[in-house]
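Lab manual, section 2.4: Encoding a predicted structure.

Procedure: take the sequence of the chain (444 residues), apply the prediction step described in section 2.3, and record the output as structure tokens. A sample record is shown.
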Amino acid sequence: MSMNLKPGDERRPETQAAGEGYVVVSERLSRGAMAMGYQAQKGGRTLFLKQYISPKPIVVWFDGYVEYQRELKRRIESNSALKNACYEFVDFFVAPAPPRYSPTSRLYYQVFEWVTGGKNLGEIIGEFRDNPAVHPWERRLIWAKVIIGSIMRLHEQKIAHIDLKPENLILIPRAETTAGYQLKLIDMDFSLLTDLPAPWHGVAGYVGTPNWWSPEHIIGQVPGTHSDVFTCGLILYDLLGEGNPYIGLDEATYKARVLEHAARPPVLHGSMPGRNEHEVITLLHRCLSPVASARPTAAELHAALNARPTVRPPTPPPEPRMSPEPTGGGTTSHAERVPTAVRSLTLTHGGTRQVVNVTTDINKAGLEHFGKDARFWDSISQFKLERRVDGWYIAPNLTAVNETLLNGKSVAGERKLNAGDVLAVGREAKGIQKLPLTVTLETP
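Recorded output:
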């Protein structure tokens, strides 16, 4: 029996009379593993009608699935900003399928708003890969902020999309909005409520798209918000960097490279405002970690893209020190306050010392007097030592071959240094440290 609908067919809830339903106005637009899509109309409004292959009303988890959809719809509509960023869930119902229209042929239908006037992000990425000038960096950065802001709101409502990909992100020009574009997230009918188990858990798989699978999809774990962050990382590599690092791979190679964390930190194709470029690069690379707990949250990504630091909290001003009270007969109404300053930084290894007085790139050539292990340091810059008003900071070069280690831990962003800290290169996971240098700070 063919399940295909044809123009003029009407689909409606079983409680409605003929003429009150959704009238199909197109041939089939799409066919996926779960459903077939059609353009339909009701009351003069154009809508997207999905006729489901799965679930069918006969499966034991069907009633739970319908309730799950009601809760998903409620959560989206409870947040006005999120509601505006997602396509509208208009209706869902069961109806007998043609040609017999018998109770045993009942199928499930969902109706969504018909999104027009925009392009999916996959199309847009293709445009600026062919011609970068067509969508300049500033515009792509705005898109990144809009997308991650919407995913952040989705996660705040305890919803995980779990099938994010450029084709499920529609960008519609809207001159009246601050961003200039309106985002529509689509294809959410198998999204997860992260605080409620899916009714199909254990009896049906979780949706996803090959070559956009998260590590959780690959190893058979339940996907969640951390899985969305992984896919957002791939998308942001495309929007802000040189491209998705796993694009075009066959399925087996894709899985292997994802689980190896084979992607390098991205090279951004524009400048970030403020002092957070290292942070953005680090967070994007962490998005692709095969370890879910190592990935940032969507809120952290959103803050970094909007130039609000998240890797390192704002540094409080240095504690003032009081000048000695006058010993003579004079008095003062307020004690003089003199801020403590840090003058120079000294690196030591064995009996060898190196004094740094100004902001300096630390590299292999500059450390050769410490010994042969300097060869493991980057030849251009392993990290930068930056002198600031409130002290010395380390800013690692995230493209260096070996990790920068601070007290044995890999440095993922700027850090303020303290006396006694140990800087080295190596691999945190393997416990390897090469040429450890102890920090001494000279103060007045």
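Check your result against the sample. The chain has ten helices and 24 strands.
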